[in-house]
Design goal:
By secondary structure, the chain is mostly helical. The chain has helices at residues 3-9, 14-21, 27-43, 55-64, 77-86, 113-117, 133-142, 169-178, and strands spanning 70-72, 95-97, 127-130, 145-149, 165-166. Helix 7 links the parallel strand 3 (127-130) and strand 4 (145-149). The longest helix has 17 residues, at 27-43. The relative contact order is 0.13.
Length: 181
């Protein structure tokens, strides 16, 4: 599978990666290959895994400003929990939504229902930070503001001219303090 082919589907989750890589729509074959993929993915953890520079500082700044943070990913909970534990990130999030919490996934806006209802958040008060077209589509479908992190998957194949964006989290933190976000 080429890098460009992978980038086109990576933010859609393991099932889409497997389907594309093995050129199959057979659900049984995908299930078998996906189970193998996830087993290897979980075992792959290494010291090379890291957060983007400045992420923890931004999370700290947002918490200090009393912002409520929510995490929504298509990554399965069993894999997500490895990273949240490894980097001690659970403490920052009010709600964590993983890819196996619901039958639907990003960019379906129903995935944010708990945040809108249980957390009593108005759409106008939410800002979604994402790094892929799936994140952008979720924000657009849900009617919430979006800002793109350019260091992520960057599978967006349309003009970025009108999308707020940032390249590193140090710039993002600076924008928070200047009030431009």
């Amino acid at each position: 599978m080429s890098r460009n082919s992978l980038l086109a589907v990576i933010s859609k989750g393991g099932r889409e990666i497997i389907s594309t890589a093995f050129n199959t729509l057979d659900p049984e074959k995908i299930d078998v290959l996906l189970a193998r993929f996830r087993t290897k993915y979980r075992a792959k953890q290494s010291d090379e895994d890291c957060l983007y520079p400045g992420v923890v500082n931004v999370l700290e700044a947002l918490r200090a400003s009393r912002k409520k943070l929510y995490l929504c990913t298509n990554k399965p909970g069993s894999i997500l929990s490895i990273y949240l534990d490894k980097f001690k990130l659970n403490q920052y999030f009010e709600v964590v939504i993983s890819g196996d919490d619901f039958a639907f996934k990003k960019p379906d806006p129903i995935i944010l229902r708990d945040i809108f209802l249980d957390q009593k958040c108005a759409k106008k008060d939410l800002l979604m930070i994402g790094d892929s077209s799936v994140d952008y589509d979720l924000a657009r479908n849900a009617g919430i503001a979006f800002i793109l992190h350019l260091g992520g998957y960057n599978d967006i194949n349309f003009s970025l001219d009108k999308i707020p964006k940032f390249s590193n989290y140090r710039d993002f933190k600076l924008a928070l303090y200047k009030g431009t976000l």
